[in-house]
């Protein structure tokens, strides 16, 4: 099993890259939108990979993050979704976008990928929603914990207990781009409401 590779990017193709590791060149299939974002030829890259053998032909699929690889692997477990459809989905949506659509039950959002129709999209949501919900909550808690530490500290400086401050931070809406002041203001509003 090849779970990751690190090497020099030697070629960028349509839906694939060639990575040189020592004296061996590996062709790795990647989401089409990703190929240009790996850097230029001659750059060192790391890809998290899944090796599939179909009809005795091995194929290596690669992603720049473990989350992309994980979502690809989960998609392969859905009946009717093969590596081509999973890769097509991750070519038109970032892993976070696709996971967000699945968690929120937005099957129509998944239908932007070629080959994923209404029934397949619904099957993806049904099969993966609970799994991704648990994983997403864990990731969101870690992310919120890192961003929320400043808010908790500010609330404690204003006289609130650590428990009160943490509850207020956990109740904050998951909005990107809010400043520390805005997050503190929202947390104070939550605390004022009880």
Give the integer mean of the pLDDT values: 85
Report the C-alpha radius of gyration, rounded.
Answer: 21 Å
Structural class: alpha+beta
User: How much β-strand is present in the residues?
Assistant: 15-25%
**CATH architecture label of the domain at 1-64:** Beta Barrel
CATH T-level topology of the domain at 1-64? OB fold (Dihydrolipoamide Acetyltransferase, E2P)
In the predicted model, the low-confidence regions spanning at least 5 consecutive residues are none
How many strands in all? 5
Oligomer: single chain
The rough form would be described as globular
What does this structure look like?
With 194 residues, this protein is an alpha+beta fold. Among the domains are: 1-64, Nucleic acid-binding proteins (OB fold (Dihydrolipoamide Acetyltransferase, E2P), Beta Barrel); 137-193, Helicase, Ruva Protein, domain 3 (Orthogonal Bundle). The chain is built from 7 helices and 5 strands. It has helices at 66-76, 83-92, 95-103, 107-110, 118-157, 162-170, 180-193, and strands at 4-13, 16-21, 24-29, 44-54, 57-63. β2 and β3 form a beta hairpin. α5 (118-157) crosses α7. The radius of gyration is 21 Å and the shape is globular. The model has no long low-confidence stretch (mean pLDDT 85).
């Amino acid at each position: 099993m090849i779970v990751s590779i690190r090497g020099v990017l030697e070629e960028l193709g349509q839906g694939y890259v060639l990575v040189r590791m020592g004296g061996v060149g590996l062709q790795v299939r990647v989401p089409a939108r990703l190929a240009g974002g790996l850097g230029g030829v001659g750059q060192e890259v790391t890809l998290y990979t899944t090796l599939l053998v179909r009809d005795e032909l091995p194929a290596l699929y690669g992603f720049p993050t473990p989350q992309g690889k994980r979502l690809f692997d989960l998609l392969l477990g859905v009946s009717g979704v093969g590596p081509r459809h999973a890769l097509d989905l991750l070519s038109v949506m970032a892993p976070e976008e696709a996971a967000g659509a699945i968690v929120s039950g937005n099957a129509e959002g998944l239908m932007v990928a070629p080959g994923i129709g209404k029934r397949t999209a619904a099957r993806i949501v049904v099969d993966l929603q609970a799994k991704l919900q648990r994983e997403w909550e864990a990731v969101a808690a870690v992310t919120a914990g890192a961003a929320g530490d400043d808010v908790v500290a500010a609330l404690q400086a204003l006289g609130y207990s650590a428990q009160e401050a943490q509850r207020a931070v956990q109740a904050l809406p998951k909005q990107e781009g809010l400043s520390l002041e805005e997050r503190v203001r929202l947390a104070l509003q939550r605390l004022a409401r009880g």
